[in-house]
């Protein structure tokens, strides 16, 4: 009898060890995925927007990414229903049409996410990739502030300090870039630094508001994240087409929807469409510390790659500013001290998930903005 209990205990311990080993490996895989997705999207957009020759319409790229997201989510729902078209259609009809009030709630975040996606193209087209990556971390600040104002959440002292450091770091980077602006403009006649800064600031504000608003209106909802993405994608596609008609309608009518599309452009669109979805899948294995570390490391990767790809110049001011931002992102994601209030903990989760696209709860924002339920992923 005793021997049997010992054998059972040994089996349980072995199972737990194996599970722990699997989880540890998944964490490292999650880290790699988060870093690659965060850095690659920004670098690839910057690359295709600075190539000589015909430029694709960014508004069409935003629409195409939304269409791909909707198709992917529909396929996942179909798989969940074991390829039963009848059950899938019944689910979608009930969630989207019969519960139309619930669907209409997503119109506002969808509008903001569509605006954010277009602004990201504008910002990255006019700013160095590393500068954009650093400045875009202001979305952590905006998400935290909107969480306090709209959801009445509280932040710990360490989080407030980290937000101040974040703002200081971004400000230092902007001072450094302002000093180098004349030199950079000589090499980049088609780029406007102030347009890029305004675009990234508005994008950060919209990202923070959309993520918190999404959390506020959908708290307690029973719908799956895939259904939510279909609902968001429907609005996103419609609003994206409206933006395309308003901004590039005549040019698209003359040259075609896919004008300027190359293999690299398709890679950017697929990264934007599926990157957030991929992050949403792996983020369940990544705690806040890992996500903060991934964001920090992606800034380093973007900076190093920018030096080689775009001859980006790193000086002492940029290093100091980026260092403050990296430290602030990591500090913000640290676990709360014992005795912290649940609301404080919840606020941290909400803000740090706002990381590319982006994107539930707020964890999926990257894809919903692109599934940060973003990520929220630059």
From TrEMBL:
GO molecular function: any one? pyrimidine nucleotide-sugar transmembrane transporter activity
Which parts pass through the membrane? 28-48, 60-79, 155-173, 193-214, 226-246, 258-283, 290-310, 316-334
Q: Which keywords does the record carry?
A: Golgi apparatus, Membrane, Sugar transport, Transmembrane, Transmembrane helix, Transport
Q: Please note every region of biased composition (Low complexity).
A: 340-356
Bilayer topology:
Multi-pass membrane protein
Q: Name one GO cellular component term.
A: Golgi membrane
Note down the stretches annotated as region Disordered. 336-378
Q: Where is this chain primarily localised?
A: Golgi
Q: Which residues form a coiled coil?
A: none
Entry keyword annotation includes Metal-binding:
no
- Report the locations given in the UniProt record: Golgi apparatus membrane
Membership in a protein family: Belongs to the nucleotide-sugar transporter family. SLC35A subfamily.
Matching entries from NCBIfam families are given as: nst
Protein name, entry field: Solute carrier family 35 member 2
Species assigned in the record: Oryzias melastigma
Q: What is the lineage of its organism?
A: Eukaryota, Metazoa, Chordata, Craniata, Vertebrata
